[in-house]
Amino acid sequence: MISSIKKTFLAVFVTLFTSALFAESYSVCLASFKNEETAFSSAELLNKTGCPSFVSRFSENGETLFRVVNSKSFSRIEDARLYRDRLLMDKTLFTLGFSDFWVVKNPLPFAGKKEAQEETEIETVKTEINLNIDVKVALIEPKAEPEPESVQETEPEPVPAPEPVPEPQSEPVPEPEPLPEPEPEEEEEVLELKENWFYVKDADTGVPVPGAQVVIEGLGTFVTEESGFIIISSDAKDTVYRAEVSKKGYISTDTLISIKDGSIISEPMISIPPVVDYDRIKIVLDWGEKPQDLDAHLDSQTEQISFKSMTNSNMTLDHDAKRGFGPETITIREIKKGERYSYSVFNFSDKYGSTKNKNLSNSSARVTVYINNSLYKTFRIKPNTPGINWHVFDITDSGKIIEINKITADKR
Predict the structure, then answer these.
(1) SS3 state at 66
(2) 388 near 357, Cβ under 8 Å?
(3) Which has the closest alpha carbon to 21: 111, 138, 126?
(4) What pLDDT score was predicted for residue 157?
């Protein structure tokens, strides 16, 4: 009887102790980069603006990525999701170009190239820890049986031990409580700011480009602020304006800005690629606020580039956007003989919905193609056309671009 009670208390103690010691935590990831220096620069920028963040290294499909993670952590995934939604309404993060957030589990801070220890995926670390726990439990249980006489004196005392264990789990829970309070004000500010703000972003990283010159015919010359935007006067007449965008170190480009009632109603942003010293074809997709997730796909007979497979020997998806606006950027370093490449845009937001809606065609989607360091051509989607897949163009093995510009209901 006493031995049974002893085992019960021991099991409760071990369960509560190990669950507290190895409890899972959830945080919000603000961005993901292939380049380590870019990740650390982004984290430094966030820290300077009052959003404490750190870099976490992560391996996916054999590729090392560097995530920028908000420093707050939560014991419940529901609280982390609530905090993520709160951050999505943050005006500062939006103007800095951070608009694609998701919840990650147990992110490990990464110190950089100087860090000696090798990090592994969270799932692997967790498996090793559980194996160690099982061994410890097996060692503790046999010790309990040979000492039945001492059970009355020694065993009742550990009962209070588990009481403080739940405390660490409850500490993070109150953190999200103040989050909803400022939500209504910030949400209104963000929506208002979008009405006549025009953004310039880096096509490779999605971060704002400050100091870019924007010449709008009929309105004048503007220079982007530190957060990569200009403000167009609400007195601008209702029409379509042609704008030229340039900055040293970037390829100059142009776009069309449609204004109605003092607000930008199409093409509120453009992404410009950096100048490089090698040959390449750069394909940049920008769009409006909705749908939130458009995906760029480049397919040949033997290869495919998209968010599913972001790199291979001659092509890369440089940036993947999931919260509207873009950019989604693909770079082709070499056209292979005998291959024909097909570039298309898929409305992932409506993947499981109707294939005949017009959300894709009314997204202000624009695909800009650059060859080496020059603007080649811009393709604009046909509005009010049903379908979820936009076949934009094909590229032959000689490098010739053939316009298709067809919207279909084909799912990917």
Answers:
(1) strand
(2) yes
(3) 126
(4) 52
Output the CA–CA distances (angstroms, integers) from residue 157 to 147, 162, 192, 400, in the order listed.
Answer: 16, 11, 62, 81
Strand pairing category for 281-286 and 328-332: antiparallel
In this structure, what token pair is assigned to residue 40?
């650390």
Global model pTM greater than 0.70: no
Give the separation between CA 345 and CA 295, rounded to whole angstroms.
6
Burial class of residue 353 in the structure, from the number of CB atoms within 10 Å of its CB (0-12 exposed, 13-18 middle, 19+ buried): exposed
Instruction: Look at residue 227 in the predicted model and tell me its pLDDT.
Output: 87
What is the Cα gyration radius of the chain?
A: 27
User: In the chain, what percentage of residues exceed pLDDT 90?
Assistant: 36
- The tokens 């590729």 sit on which residue? 63
3-state secondary structure at position 19: helix
Triad 234, 240, 242: Cα angle to 5°: 100
36 SS3 class: helix
C-beta of residue 110 within 8 angstroms of C-beta of residue 37: no
Q: Long-range contacts of range 328-331, CB-CB < 8 Å, 24 or more positions apart?
A: 328/284, 328/285, 328/294, 328/295, 328/296, 329/203, 329/204, 329/271, 329/273, 329/282, 329/283, 329/284, 329/285, 329/296, 330/282, 330/283, 330/296, 330/298, 330/305, 331/280, 331/281, 331/282, 331/283
